[in-house]
Amino acid sequence: MKKALAGLLILLGLVSCTGDSNRLTTGEVVFESKDKKVKVFKEEVDFVINQSMDPEMLDQVPKEQLDAQKKAIIKQLAFYKSIALSPEAAKLKATKDYKMALGLQEDTLLTGLFLKDKVKDIKVTDEETKKFYDDNKSAFTRQDNIADLQLIYLPYRSDDEKAQADRVLAEAKQNKDKFGDLAKQYSADKTSGANGGVTGPLPLDKLGADFAPIKDAAINGAVNEVAPNLVILGGDTAVIVKVNKKELKGEVVKYEDVQKNIAFQLKQKKIAEEQAKIEKEIVDKYDLNSIDQLKLEEKAADKDKK
């Protein structure tokens, strides 16, 4: 993702230097400075996102991550536009350096748009994705045990604590859809409890020996169910385990779960191949490989030494 964000910032730099005559001035505004001089338009943000990411994969990006990326784009665009408003920047537009940079960046931007336009109709069929899946089953076989769990930690020393743990377990079984609320109410681990007891993807094979009972409960437990029995850790802590999702070692991932990712990878491969073909055609047409044989003029300082 860092690589993708770097690509976004490069594209932002190119977009910011396309000249006032091409600047968007109407549409939905997503940011406006207090003095109303700096505006960032939704259309600009969408353009950058769509140029840097495959639109078909946007629904695969978590909303929080996509929102953070859009905010980074808005902030960067606003920064560029703020600089452009300064009198010093206005003076620079008359310089040779500005005109040179603008011309080179225009060529770079046009090249990106040209290549994207050339491959816009590339598709991957369901038959192609299914064949890839069937031919590469080993690549879709789980190599480890991973589970998304919710846990409620309870003290388990005295008879009263043991009885309380049994009562909370019964309540959790009856109200599994409210497990997060129960974790907040009862869990002795306040940090975990405040988060509803959610573990996120947990590599079960990397759990220490002390937590082996949790691993066993996760592997043997039914998905979307609360484990039937308390898990006892160290003789003084009871854990109520709810299994939200699990991926067990040796299982083959269902085709439906990876179809979109396979299609994306195959499409990127086709795009790379097509763009490489186009690049070769242009290199051959204009004899660009002859550049490798150029003898560039020596620097004056080097000539003087000789």
Automatic annotation (TrEMBL):
SUPFAM superfamilies reported for this sequence: FKBP-like
Domain of life assignment: Bacteria
UniProt keyword list: Isomerase, Rotamase, Signal
GO MF terms held by the record: peptidyl-prolyl cis-trans isomerase activity
Pfam families assigned to the protein according to its UniProt record, in alphabetical order: Rotamase_3
Record's keyword annotation contains Signal: yes
Family annotation (Gene3D superfamilies): 3.10.50.40, Porin chaperone SurA, peptide-binding domain
Its EC number(s): 5.2.1.8
Keyword match Signal: yes
InterPro entries: PPIase_dom_sf, PPIase_PpiC, PrsA_foldase
Catalytic reaction equation(s): [protein]-peptidylproline (omega=180) = [protein]-peptidylproline (omega=0)
Residues covered by the PpiC domain: 146-245
Name of this protein: peptidylprolyl isomerase
Species the sequence originates in: Sebaldella termitidis (strain ATCC 33386 / NCTC 11300)
Lineage, uppermost ranks: Bacteria, Fusobacteriati, Fusobacteriota, Fusobacteriia, Fusobacteriales
